[in-house]
TrEMBL record:
Residues 482-601 form the Alkyl sulfatase C-terminal domain. Residues 334-471 form the Alkyl sulfatase dimerisation domain. InterPro entries: Alkyl/aryl-sulf_dimr_sf, Alkyl_sulf_C, Alkyl_sulf_dimr, Bact_Alkyl/Aryl-Sulfatase, RibonucZ/Hydroxyglut_hydro, SCP2_sterol-bd_dom_sf. It comes from the Eukaryota. One of its GO terms (biological process) is dodecyl sulfate metabolic process. One of its GO terms (molecular function) is protein dimerization activity. PANTHER family: ALKYL/ARYL-SULFATASE (PTHR43223), ALKYL_ARYL-SULFATASE BDS1 (PTHR43223:SF1). It holds the Pfam family Alkyl_sulf_dimr. This is Uncharacterized protein.
Length: 686
């Protein structure tokens, strides 16, 4: 960073490298406090918020009934306390309100047990539970807490879900469960050790529960844009809203209660919108709404407040979409758009639509991705080297990791945290044993995290910092309960095997065809291996059973999958060639890494050999530069410092500043860092 510094008393203007304003601790595994620069960024982010308005506190506390016996938000330890955004702290205060809340007559919420909020509607013919939370233990605790003030008689159960819910919920959590859980734990801060500067919250709650995930298949599916259903004696108007925040979603309105539920689409903060299409709007009944609830956070009370919040939320979602597309059409890339776009003050000052969870920068990138994909259109970025190879080239060009670290420390000391983190990532991927590089990257990620208002974005930075300093700790595996297998159709279970095929082994089994079936569900499919691809085909007139070498039938789906993976023939009845089971099982890869490296090179990737810039040439260049600088002492240094054009530019700038300050004569001093010669040129500008 180059700055033009002026001093009217001495009439001297100096071009020099910016220097750090504060001292930094040594490179080690300790947690660091927020720097002055980071504190200033936080203050700038919060400038439009009015924290003297206590309406939000009243909304959050409204209707409190009972709290759990104990709740642990986070541990605090250590002396260094980070300075965080007032907005992220305020939301933490709101999220700390846990327990049962009475929204209105016959409507209760249980908050703080998981990422989502459980809503219970006391209908004439039974209880209606909206959102069963993400896993079994929090759901059980939440419902039992509600039951401390109500009695309940078991009865029949109806489960209502939107179109494609089964496919979306099961495929997302089954097909790529390990990878999604790895990223989710970064996002929600589960892996951050409790300490004073650790995770604050995850935007929707304090974190995600580490317990077994279950699944219940719906008995009623909302398949059209608008549907009317009567459940437990209450009329519901459903509105299908696919892909605004989640791929399968609906809203509902209960006329008798004047209650609107907006699902995950409208909460008390900006959500992540992977697709920018937004929800279909039907405002015909909006004037009837008295209260609004969602699947996260707390309600909005009163028609005026509900309408205002929905209008602000609508504009907060449409603004980044429209502006991102406008900037895209001007040729800006994804990163350039995210750096340019800013919410208007009227939206930025609204706490309920701020980026507590989703984020303006993130959403603008998602809009770009939706329309033009991952690539920015530049030929040089079309086939970039993978991270390890890129790091090897970068480190070699800089003269090795020590030189990269030297530059990294300079950038850290001058608050270029984002760039420092980037180049230190190169150093770490070039040499994963370089602890100094890891500590330096961790320090920068930590500062970036402090300045984030979004809980998930802060958690990503802090988790990365934690793993760089201390390595990967204990990592809970993805715990998908038996209900997933019980409710998942056979073709989806087989898709889970299709993505585990080892191409080398499967190529040897080209042409293999077997029939697989499940007795209790009367399912049967034709499974084939073709060109190292596993195909799971339904039995139809177009695809008859002929040509199969064997038939394997199990009583349950889980038995069938176990037999196909382990070649355990005792779990299935066999007709035909039993060796076909062994041949098929040999095609299934057993390699899986649910704790794959994020901050260091991937274990399963083998970098390709690289031709890197020779260190000997760098040493020769350094020697030549040193000789040239020594001879510069006795010569004019104009060509060793700034170009003639740059000197003229500085002179013009000095003239302008001088005229503004009423200065007649200025001395222009231009310096080049690490140059033994500092030439001065005194020019009479009067």
């Amino acid at each position: 960073m180059i700055t033009l510094q002026g001093n009217s008393s001495t009439s001297t203007y100096t071009i020099a490298a910016a220097v750090a304003t504060g001292a930094y601790a040594s490179l080690d595994a300790s947690y660091k406090p927020a720097s002055d620069f980071t504190k200033a960024e936080i203050a700038e982010s919060d400038k439009n918020l009015n924290f003297s308005n206590y309406t939000m506190y009243e909304e959050v506390d409204c209707g409190f009934v009972v709290a759990p016996n104990t709740t642990r938000i986070m541990d605090t330890s250590g002396e260094n306390v980070a300075i965080d955004s007032d907005a992220i702290i305020a939301l933490a205060q709101f999220l700390a309100r846990t327990g049962v809340y009475r929204v209105q007559d016959k409507v209760y919420q249980v908050r703080g047990m998981d990422l989502a909020t459980m809503t219970i509607i006391e209908a004439p013919e039974g209880l209606i539970v909206v959102n069963l939370l993400g896993s079994s233990e929090p759901a059980k605790i939440a419902f039992e807490l509600y039951m401390t003030h109500e009695s309940f008689i078991n009865g029949s159960i109806q489960v209502v879900a939107p179109l494609n819910f089964v496919e979306e919920a099961l495929s997302e959590n089954y097909m790529v469960a390990g990878s999604m859980f790895r990223r989710a734990f970064y996002m929600y801060g589960n892996l951050i050790k409790p300490h004073a500067q650790g995770s604050i919250h995850a935007g929707l709650a304090f974190g995600a529960a580490n317990s077994q995930f279950g699944f219940v298949a719906p008995t009623i599916s909302i398949d059209t844009d608008l549907e009317h259903h009567t459940m437990a004696g209450l009329d519901f108007e459903f509105m299908l809203t696919l892909s605004p925040e989640a791929p399968s979603e609906f809203h509902f309105f209960v006329p008798e209660l004047k209650l609107l539920n907006t699902g995950e689409n409208v909460v008390m903060g900006m959500h992540n919108c992977l697709t920018p299409r937004g929800a279909k709007e039907d405002l015909r009944s909006l004037w009837l709404v008295e209260n609004m609830i969602g699947q996260h956070h707390w309600p909005k009370y009163g028609n005026a407040a509900v309408v205002e919040h929905l209008e602000n939320y609508r504009d907060t979602i449409k603004f980044p979409h429209n502006q991102a597309v406008r900037l895209l059409k001007l040729g800006l890339g994804m990163e350039e758009i995210s750096e340019t776009i800013e919410l208007p003050a009227s939206l930025d000052s609204n706490f309920s639509t701020r980026g507590h969870y989703g984020h303006l920068k993130h959403n603008s990138k998602e809009v770009y991705q939706f329309y033009v994909g991952w690539w920015d259109g530049k030929p040089a970025t079309y086939q970039q080297l993978p991270p390890v190879e890129r790091a090897q080239q970068y480190a070699a060009d800089m003269g090795g990791n020590a030189e990269v670290r030297k530059r990294g420390e300079w950038h850290r000391d001058n608050e270029n945290y984002r760039y420092c983190a980037k180049i230190m990532n190169h150093a770490v991927f070039n040499d994963p044993t370089d602890m100094a590089a890891k500590y330096l990257e961790a320090d920068c990620l930590e500062q970036i995290g402090y300045s984030e208002e979004s809980g998930p974005r802060r958690n990503y930075m802090q988790t990365g910092s934690e793993e760089l300093r201390h390595g990967k700790g204990a990592y809970p595996p993805a715990d998908l309960g038996p209900s997933f297998v019980l409710n998942m159709p056979l073709y989806m279970l087989l898709q889970g095997l299709e993505i585990r095929i080892n191409p080398e082994q499967a190529n040897k089994a080209h042409g293999l065809s077997i029939l697989v079936g499940v007795e209790e569900t009367n399912e049967m499919l034709d499974v084939r291996i073709s060109n190292a691809v596993m195909l799971s085909l339904p039995i139809t007139d177009m695809n008859p059973r002929s040509g199969s070498t064997a038939n394997f039938t199990a009583k349950t789906r889980s038995d069938l999958i176990a037999a196909l993976v382990t070649e355990n023939s005792s779990l299935v009845s066999v007709t035909g060639d039993i060796d076909a089971l062994k041949e098929f099982a040999s095609c299934i890869s057993t390699d899986e890494d649910a704790t794959w490296n994020v901050m260091t090179p991937r274990d399963f990737y083998e970098p390709k050999p690289q031709k890197t810039y020779p260190a000997s040439l760098i040493q020769t260049l350094v020697a030549q530069t040193s000789t040239a600088e020594s001879s510069c002492v006795e010569q004019s240094c104009l060509d060793q410092g700034l170009s003639v054009g740059a000197v003229v530019g500085v002179a013009v700038a000095a003239l302008i500043v001088g005229l503004v300050g009423g200065i007649g004569v200025n001395t222009i001093v231009y310096r080049r860092k690490n140059n033994a010669c500092a030439a001065e040129s005194t020019t009479d500008l009067g």
